[in-house]
Amino acid sequence: MSAAFAGPMVEKNIKKSALVSMVCFVVGFAGTGVSIALNFLPGVFICYGAIMGIGLGVGYLTPVKNLMLWFSDNKGLATGIAVAGFGLAKAIASPLMEYLIGTVGLVNMFFILAVIYAVMMFFGFLLIKRPADWVYDPATSHVSRAEILRKPVFWGIWIAFYINITCGLALISQEKDILHDVLKAFPQYAGLSPAKFAAAIAGIIGLVLAVDSVFNTAGRVGFSTLSDHLKRRETVYQVIFIMSIAVCLLQIFTNSINNALLWAVLAMLFLINAGYGGGFSTLPVLLDQHFGTKTVSTTHGLALSAWAFAGLSGNQLASFVVTHTPDQAHRYAALIPVLTGLFALALISISLVKYLGGRNGEGKRSIGA
């Protein structure tokens, strides 16, 4: 949620926002280590939750508008690379954290990460800058949050973005269990004990999750780059939602989860992951189309509040559906129609945004069709 309030600071002073993000990460990591060492649970909540959460929100916003200014002819590609970097970071950080926990322990891991992040983010702070011809003008760069929140177009974008994240998180949270149910129907695993079955499919599930990450990253770069060549960037979201609905319907009509049609299940998982990533990377340039580059950090920060709410609702939605469906033997299949309906609502929302924007003459672009 910190991104919703940090936008104006990023608009005005990118050096300051980069420094604030660095300080929050370093203090957050070090403070968490101290809190764990002292068995002080509130300190963990404050340092790892609140302080690092602020650093994450500010740091997420900081490079996006800057890259849009530097690469004004390829804004989608620029934001796609930035957002893809955010997504790929876990491929480095997660193994590193596991290694450090195993070698130096949990507390020392946080201290070491504080040093690593301090060095890396300080170099980023030194290197980041606006283009030479950019000048902050309060008269044109400041926009009232209340004014943005009064615009129906903003809420149409917010709803579509929120639903895309909610559906993505709902599916991702159940992904391992879905694969488990599909694979246990394969003849080669028949008769295996639960322990042997889990060991036998661990490599397959790991491979699927790795390919998921590839599709997620490709979606972040690919969909935002596609938006550079379209007259209206809402079209990218329409493509994402239609694609997501199509693969969900494929699962429904083939009953692929219950019939162990692995190819159909993988198509659903991979393509929804790609759309999940593409929704993040296309958001800044879509907001730029409707509200302008001068205020994109403010509007982007407000729109990212949807991410915070989706983080609360996505996993809980999946858990509720899976737990309460009457047919527990097919509980994971019950989630897919729900996602289909939500994606349809998102498609309606973004289509209304496209209609309203076109009617008001917003976002007229000179390239593509």
UniProtKB/TrEMBL annotation:
A single Gene Ontology MF term assigned here is: transmembrane transporter activity
| One Pfam family of this chain | MFS_1
Q: Where is the Major facilitator superfamily (MFS) profile domain?
A: 1-361
Bilayer topology annotation: Multi-pass membrane protein
Q: Which UniProt keywords apply?
A: Membrane, Transmembrane, Transmembrane helix
What name does UniProt use for this protein? Major facilitator superfamily protein
Transmembrane stretches in the record are: 18-37, 43-64, 76-93, 99-128, 153-173, 193-215, 236-254, 260-287, 299-322, 334-356
Q: Which domain of life is it from?
A: Bacteria
Chief localisation class:
membrane
Record's GO cellular component terms? plasma membrane
